[in-house]
């Protein structure tokens, strides 16, 4: 690097430039303008927990590079293509995807890793484990009562379910009362409830263990346990312990044995537990062998639990717990080892090196246990990507005589059982000219006799310079000038060069005058509790007006205004003078001295306080509803009184509550009080000064005012209409003290605003009134006036409002639907005229329902849906529709009363989409070289199925993954397939997707392993059959034997069966006879059939006679329209085009045959007069539907034994 002054100042610096060899740059920050491999800039945490109350879970992966990186993910070590899952939310030009909380997260659980790649290499993120929290539950169980003799120890097991930590255990009763714990009874770290010895009061039937999981906001309860303590008959000999149980020496309920080992991670809390049993109850002591207990050690749970917070290496060692009572002691030793997760000792750094140089990449880490180091290059293990010029020596990779092709991203991962660290190092082998990253033309300011640094951050510079005594160039290219002089001001040039070229920038240095303090703080008087203002005036260079800073010190310590609440600073204008400025310091009351760096004074403060209470309050000049109050002010305590506050208390409505009545200025000691009528008052006064409000005076004697007419009328009048022909008028009533006398009433006056009419008046005592028989939603004028026994209040003001609303009378017109895509439509309409709204417009509602899928012609009414759009509008968007379906919708408006009528139903169709996932995909048969598959079509094809995409690949372990084989099945009716020519005893992954013309839907997968040998059964193939035949008899079958029957094309080009089924041949008994061949059975069936025929004929004759009765005549004269509709034979007709078995095919005897159900027709939802309720439900009735009965005869060929 080379730094130069302008020619006029060149004599000051002596600069010698020396061009050296290209060198390696470590820990570089390469500008994105230069081609470079990817660098991970954002990655997910090591674990991501899916809490049920979170809306989504981001899997973050961001990277920079040139060319722009491309991203891919692995899940559990396998490729995970997040872009094909429509449920995942993706971001453009980013590796980040978001998993929505749609209630089905288990399939996303696993370990993920992100890879960012471009043509120069691949960077790898750390692994993130996506954990789906299952709801913890105790098993449903019946627990036997615990029976224990008095004096014996026992344990109640909790065995809490697993869940997201932390776990908190509580033992309580059914009534949620905590089980009392003491030295005898305690809860262990495992959640069990320990009893050192049983006593009779331990007998109860409702011991409940509660497990709390705060992070998922869940508490679960175990089945209540019952304990029965059998009283002991043993009597101790000591006379003072009569009827007592025998004493015994201690032993430990937990932990078992005499010693155990404890490992924990550095930073975790060390918890050691000893729970003893014995009589008397033992006490527990803790020691650390060879040393005392560490500082901060805590003993809890009545001495049974030792806790050392945030343990580290020094807390390792041997600990002992001792439980003792007068009869003996029991001990247990803990060997504690504090381990550490990996920590970098030398993290690999990115490097830019010249072609032909040797590159060293060092990676080392420490931890307990010792971390293992794993190297990768571009995300691939180093052993799988060999290079002749690359060697590994201990913790260092050496690349000899590096070439441009050696450029890559190296990953070093250090891991032990407590965690792992991953670091990416970008190794670039290129010859690049130098680049200066500091902006050209920067300006720098220096104060005379002070130092200054000019920056020049050069990239790929190899030049050096030698400077004068006051000038120094640092390794980062910065130029430091000490003791700046006025003559140092000027332009400087930074020159960087190497063997590939050179680059330079200019910088300007300005040298300014020093700053001096010219005014110091002065003494002043302050108030107690108020602020002390100390000012300081300084002179400084005019160009520093925006960068000036003043530092305050107290007792030689700088005051931090952000960290010291009692200090704060602010700027004040001392005088209107150029090159001068000031700052102020404030501090609460008291004597304040501020030594300043240049000079200081000790300012003195006079302390002030709030005023004393006024005295000698006197009431005079009694004039009914007014009285004069005089007082003598109290001491103002060095601060003049600014105001006097007069308060009152009345003893009728709010006795004991003081309210402010009047505020007078400081120069007054009397006031005339204006009062309400018919009230008994007491008064008091207090003073206010700049410090605050003083205490109040003693109250005056009681003063009673005479009654009077009201001084005001009600306020906040509200007009509401809850019913069409009513208007509710409500107002805020007068306060009791405002009544001014007994007999308060209100006069309500109203009249229509849109017509000429007189006021209608009503007098009420309550604060509401309902006007009956009003027109619907018309404007009114209303006024309310107060009145008591003394007269009327002032003339009231007039307010306006509307009478009650009614349902809108008409539906929106010109409803139209524009299909946006396969699941979204835009609905437009002409808004309802305001005269038809009959109320305040609330908005519009759209109701829609699915008529049928366009895949078949059957009408199946789906669930009804509704969306509400507030405000005045003429269009809306309806999302969430099923593709390739026919829908119907209506639009209605609503007001405060409710919904109006619906518009004429509009039918529309959505275009095709991709199918849903196949609900069934399974393996039906596995042989040595073949796998038989079967599946069912998707429940929602979302279009016309064009076929299926069947893929499979060998997955014998992670190291052996075969190529993905694809089979296009162009027959959408195919539901079975046989994969042939497979490897024996090999594991295959099978994928199936349904396809339409719009593409293929989500994949469903299955795994299967081929057999080592062919199964016991062997295929037998008949002779070729004529294509004109519709049946074939198979001979030579064994009775009571299961067979698989297939009908396949002779060419087997399409590799699929025309027909396949499993049959079971009957036994010999079913061939030669059964109940159906017995004579008595045949006779019984004939009798039943004859009796049924007679009953049907009688019913038919009786029905024909019904027309002769008078009731029938009345029905003919007054036909029931609803009944006619219900009996209309054309209602809900359907075409008989259900799927039927292939002609000549045979079904298994165990297979279930279902009759096709017809779907609902549009009549189910009404015609043009169709209505919806306010909540969107449909108004109407379903008529009877014709039932279509489908019978199926299942036959199986039977071979009679010879």
UniProtKB/TrEMBL annotation:
Q: Offer one example of a GO biological process linked to this entry.
A: brain development
Give the subcellular location.
Cell membrane; Secreted, Extracellular space, Extracellular matrix
**Compositional bias of kind Basic and acidic residues:** 1183-1192
Task: Note one Pfam family from the annotation.
Answer: Ig_3
InterPro entries hit by this protein: FN3_dom (IPR003961), FN3_sf (IPR036116), Ig-like_dom (IPR007110), Ig-like_dom_sf (IPR036179), Ig-like_fold (IPR013783), Ig_I-set (IPR013098), Ig_sub (IPR003599), Ig_sub2 (IPR003598)
Keyword Cell membrane part of the UniProt annotation: yes
Domain Fibronectin type-III: where?
613-708, 713-806, 811-913, 915-1017
Positions of region (Disordered): 695-714, 1114-1202
Please give, as recorded in its UniProt entry, the membrane topology of this protein.
Answer: Single-pass type I membrane protein
Task: Tell me the first and last residues of the signal peptide.
Answer: 1-21
Q: Which residues cross the membrane?
A: 1080-1101
All residue ranges annotated as the Ig-like domain in the record: 38-129, 136-226, 250-337, 342-428, 433-510
Q: What GO terms fall under cellular component here?
A: axon; plasma membrane
Its predominant location is membrane
Q: Which UniProt keywords apply?
A: Cell adhesion, Cell membrane, Disulfide bond, Extracellular matrix, Glycoprotein, Immunoglobulin domain, Membrane, Repeat, Secreted, Signal, Transmembrane, Transmembrane helix
Q: Which family does it belong to?
A: Belongs to the immunoglobulin superfamily. L1/neurofascin/NgCAM family.
What do we know about how this protein assembles, alone or with others?
May interact with L1CAM. May interact with ITGB1/ITGA1 heterodimer and ITGB1/ITGA2 heterodimer as well as with ANK3.
How is this protein named in the record? Neural cell adhesion molecule L1-like protein
What gene is this protein a product of? chl1b
């Amino acid at each position: 690097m080379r730094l130069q002054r302008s020619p006029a100042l060149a004599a000051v610096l002596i600069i010698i430039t020396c061009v050296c060899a290209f060198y390696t740059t470590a820990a570089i920050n390469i500008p994105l303008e230069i081609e470079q491999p990817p660098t991970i800039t954002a990655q997910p945490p090591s674990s991501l927990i899916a809490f049920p109350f979170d809306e989504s879970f981001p899997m973050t992966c961001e990277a920079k590079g040139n060319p722009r990186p491309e991203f891919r993910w692995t899940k559990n070590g396998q490729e995970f293509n997040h872009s094909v899952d429509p449920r995942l939310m993706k971001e453009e030009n980013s590796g980040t995807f978001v998993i929505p909380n749609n209630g089905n997260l288990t399939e996303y659980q696993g370990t993920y890793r992100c890879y960012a790649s471009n043509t120069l290499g691949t960077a790898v993120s750390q692994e993130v484990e996506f954990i789906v929290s299952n709801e913890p539950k105790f098993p449903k169980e019946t627990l036997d009562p615990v029976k224990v003799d008095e004096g014996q120890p026992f344990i109640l097991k909790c065995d809490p379910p697993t869940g997201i930590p932390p776990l908190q255990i509580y033992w309580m009763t059914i009534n949620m009362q905590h089980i009392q714990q003491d030295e005898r009874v305690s809860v262990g770290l495992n959640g069990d409830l320990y009893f050192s010895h049983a006593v009779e009061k331990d007998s109860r039937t409702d011991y409940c263990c509660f497990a709390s999981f705060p992070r998922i906001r869940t508490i679960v309860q175990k089945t209540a346990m019952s304990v029965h303590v059998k009283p002991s008959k043993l009597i101790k000999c000591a006379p003072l312990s009569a009827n007592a149980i025998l004493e015994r020496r201690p032993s430990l309920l937990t932990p078992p044995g005499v010693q155990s080992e404890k490992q924990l991670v550095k930073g975790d809390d060390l918890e050691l537990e000893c729970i003893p049993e014995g009589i008397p109850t033992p006490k527990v002591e803790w020691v650390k062998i060879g040393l005392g207990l560490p500082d901060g050690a805590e003993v809890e749970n009545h001495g049974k639990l030792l806790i050392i917070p945030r343990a580290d290496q020094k807390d390792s060692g041997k600990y002992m717990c001792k439980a003792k009572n007068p009869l003996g002691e029991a001990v247990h030793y803990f060997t504690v080892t504090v381990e550490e997760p990996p920590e970098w000792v030398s993290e690999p750094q990115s490097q830019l090196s010249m072609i032909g140089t040797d590159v060293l990449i060092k990676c080392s880490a420490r931890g307990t246990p010792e971390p293992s180091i794993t190297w990768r290059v571009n995300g691939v293990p180093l052993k799988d990507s060999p290079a002749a010029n690359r060697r590994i020596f201990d913790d260092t990779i050496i690349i000899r005589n590096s070439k441009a092709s050696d450029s890559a991203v190296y990953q070093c991962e250090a891991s032990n059982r407590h965690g792992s660290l991953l670091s990416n190092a970008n190794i670039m082998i290129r010859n690049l000219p130098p680049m200066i990253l500091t902006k050209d033309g920067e300006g720098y300011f220096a104060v005379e006799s002070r130092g200054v640094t000019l920056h020049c951050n050069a990239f790929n510079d190899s030049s050096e310079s030698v400077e004068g005594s006051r000038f120094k160039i640092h390794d980062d290219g910065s130029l430091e000038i000490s003791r700046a002089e006025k003559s140092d001001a000027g332009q400087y040039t930074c020159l960087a060069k190497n063997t590939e070229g050179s680059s330079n920038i200019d910088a300007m240095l300005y040298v300014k005058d020093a700053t001096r303090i010219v005014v110091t703080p002065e003494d002043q008087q302050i108030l107690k509790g108020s602020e002390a203002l100390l000012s300081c005036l300084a002179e400084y260079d005019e160009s520093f007006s925006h960068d000036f800073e003043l530092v305050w010190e107290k007792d030689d310590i700088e005051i931090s205004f952000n960290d010291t609440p009692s200090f704060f600073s602010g700027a004040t204008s001392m005088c209107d003078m150029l090159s001068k400025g000031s700052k102020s310091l404030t501090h609460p009351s008291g004597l304040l001295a501020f030594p300043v760096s240049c000079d200081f004074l000790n300012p003195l403060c006079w302390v002030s306080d709030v005023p004393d209470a006024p005295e000698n309050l006197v009431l005079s000049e009694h004039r009914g509803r007014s009285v004069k109050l005089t007082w003598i002010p109290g001491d103002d305590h060095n601060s003049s009184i600014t105001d006097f506050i007069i308060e009152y208390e009345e003893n009728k409505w709010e006795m004991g509550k003081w309210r402010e009545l009047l505020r007078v200025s400081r120069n007054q000691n009397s006031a005339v009080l204006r009062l309400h009528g018919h009230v008994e008052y007491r008064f008091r006064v207090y003073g206010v000064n700049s410090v605050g409000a003083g205490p109040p005076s003693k109250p005056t004697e009681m003063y009673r005012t005479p009654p009077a007419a009201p001084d005001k009328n009600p306020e906040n009048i509200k007009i509401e209409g809850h019913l069409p022909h009513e208007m509710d008028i409500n107002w805020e009533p007068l306060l009791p003290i405002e009544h001014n006398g007994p007999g308060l009433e209100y006069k309500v006056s109203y009249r229509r605003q849109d017509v000429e009419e007189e006021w209608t008046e009503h007098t009420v005592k309550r604060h509401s009134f309902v006007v009956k028989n009003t027109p619907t939603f018309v404007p009114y004028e209303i006024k309310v006036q107060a009145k008591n026994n003394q007269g009327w209040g002032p003339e009231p003001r007039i307010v306006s409002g509307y009478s009650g609303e009614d349902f809108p009378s008409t539906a929106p017109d010109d409803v139209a639907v524009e299909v946006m895509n396969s699941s979204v439509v835009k609905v437009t309409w002409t808004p309802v005229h305001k005269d038809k709204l009959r109320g305040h417009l609330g908005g519009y509602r759209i109701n829609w329902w699915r008529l049928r899928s366009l895949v078949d012609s059957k009408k199946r009414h789906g669930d009804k849906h509704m969306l509400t759009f507030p405000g005045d509008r003429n269009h809306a968007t309806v999302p969430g529709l099923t593709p390739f379906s026919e829908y119907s919708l209506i639009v209605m408006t609503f007001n405060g009363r409710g919904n109006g009528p619906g518009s004429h139903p509009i039918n529309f169709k959505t275009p095709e989409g991709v199918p849903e996932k196949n609900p069934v995909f399974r393996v039906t048969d596995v042989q040595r070289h073949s796998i038989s598959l079967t599946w069912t079509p998707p429940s929602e094809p979302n279009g016309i199925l064009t076929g299926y995409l069947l893929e499979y690949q060998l997955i014998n372990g992670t190291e052996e993954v075969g190529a993905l084989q694809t089979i296009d099945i162009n027959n959408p009716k195919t539901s079975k397939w046989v994969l042939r020519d497979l490897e024996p005893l090999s594991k295959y992954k099978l994928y199936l997707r349904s396809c339409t013309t719009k593409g293929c839907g989500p994949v469903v997968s299955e795994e299967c392993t081929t057999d080592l040998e062919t199964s016991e059964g062997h295929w037998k193939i008949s002779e070729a059959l004529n294509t004109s035949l519709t049946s074939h008899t198979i001979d030579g079958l064994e009775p009571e034997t299961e067979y698989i029957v297939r009908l396949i094309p002779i060419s087997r080009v399409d590799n699929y069966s025309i027909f396949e089924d499993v049959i079971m041949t009957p036994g010999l008994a079913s061939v030669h006879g059964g109940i159906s061949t017995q004579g008595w059975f045949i006779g019984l069936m004939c009798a039943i059939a004859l009796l049924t025929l007679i009953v049907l004929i009688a019913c038919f004759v009786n029905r024909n006679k019904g027309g002769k009765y008078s009731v029938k005549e009345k029905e003919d004269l007054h036909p029931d329209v609803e009944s006619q509709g219900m009996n209309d034979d054309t209602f809900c007709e359907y075409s008989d085009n259900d799927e039927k078995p292939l002609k000549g095919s045979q079904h298994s005897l165990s297979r279930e045959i279902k009759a096709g159900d017809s779907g609902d027709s549009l009549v189910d939802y009404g015609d043009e007069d169709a209505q919806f309720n306010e909540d969107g439900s449909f108004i109407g009735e379903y008529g009877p539907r014709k039932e279509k009965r489908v019978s199926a005869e299942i036959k199986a060929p039977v071979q009679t034994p010879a």
